[in-house]
Amino acid sequence: MKEFISEKAYIGKETKMGLNVIIEDNVLIGDNCLIGHNVIIHEGSEIGSGVRIDDGTIIGKEPLFSPRSIFKPKKFDPTKIGDDCLIGANVVIYVGCVIGTKNLIADLSTIRENVTVGDVNIIGRNVTIENFVTIGSRCKFETNVYITAYSEVGDYCFVAPCVATSNDNYMARDKERYKHFKGVTLKTGARIGVNATILPGKIIHEDGMVAAGSVVSNDVPKEKVVLGNPAKVLRDVNEKQLLKNNLDK
After folding, report:
1. What region, left, alpha or beta, does residue 172 occupy, with left being phi > 0 and alpha being psi -120 to 50 degrees?
2. Is the pTM for the entire model greater than 0.70?
3. What local confidence, expressed as pLDDT, does residue 172 receive?
4. Are both 10 and 121 inside the same structural domain?
5. From CA 137, how far away is CA 122, in angstroms rounded?
6. Do the beta carbons of residue 168 and residue 177 sit within 8 Å?
7. What Å distances lie between residue 22 and 2, 9, 39, 92, 168, CA to CA?
8. Helix count and strand count (H, E) for the chain
9. Is residue 140 part of a domain?
């Protein structure tokens, strides 16, 4: 067992590391961090102070590109992780990500390249966030959530376990699809119930709520509950459930 810490890396005060850690050139790690066993932090990555990174996690991974991929190789900025984040075991955070402060990213999650995450979010176990996604602050993504590429998520959003989102109406056929990739949009306070499916380009407006198991094929209006396959408006969101009445709870 042997660690590798580049002489060109900066390690802050009181930061502790486990066995077999690899820290590449020009990595910056702040003070009072805890780095677990078998962690790899790739070149140029910046880690704030008070960050915990558990065993087997990879920070700043370069993406792979299939000859059939719509994405082409490019130069990415280094990954940046803000202060006081907690990152679980066997997490993969790709190059080009900017992660804010006080986020929890649980075991086995994957965050693809060019993703921006705000502050104080919970990204649950085995969540996948694809590339070119923007996430606000104080959101919660529970176990096995899949957020497709080119999506936008506002603040205070809630996404229950096993929710799936999509961005391709052409289902991988017809070159016309390359012109129309569009992820989903969750406005501030949007909520999605367990095992729901959100189709490409759909918008869940402020305080919109998608019931469990629904298939969203039309935009969800502000402060409305939708239910079914295809999802249709059921009723107004209960007044007590509106975000404006819960910000202090």
Report:
1. left
2. yes
3. 66
4. yes
5. 9
6. yes
7. 9, 11, 6, 14, 38
8. 0, 33
9. no
Segments forming the whole domain that contains residue 234: 146-249
Long-range contacts of 106-109 (CB under 8 A, 24+ apart): 107/54
Tell me the CATH number at 215.
Answer: 2.160.10.10
Residue (of 74, 75, 80) closest to 60 by Cα position:
80
Number of structural domains in the chain? 2
Residues of the chain with pLDDT under 70: 1-2, 70-71, 172, 178, 180, 249
Longest C-alpha distance within the chain, in Å? 61
Tell me, what amino acid is at 62?
A: E
Indicate whether 103 and 2 sit together in one domain. Answer: yes
Q: What residues have CB less than 8 Å from 202, skipping those under 6 apart?
A: 184, 185, 216, 217, 218, 219, 220
Distance, CA of 147 to CA of 128 (rounded, Å):
6
Which string of DSSP letters, residue by residue, matches 145-176? Answer: -EE-TT-EE-SS-EE-TT-EE---TTTT-SGG
In a domain, 237, yes or no: yes
Report the distance separating Cα 154 and Cα 136, nearest Å: 5
- The gap between the terminal CA atoms of the chain, to the nearest Å, is 47
Alpha carbons 40 and 220: distance in angstroms, whole number: 41
Residues 121 and 153 in one domain: no
Residues 176 and 228 in one domain: yes
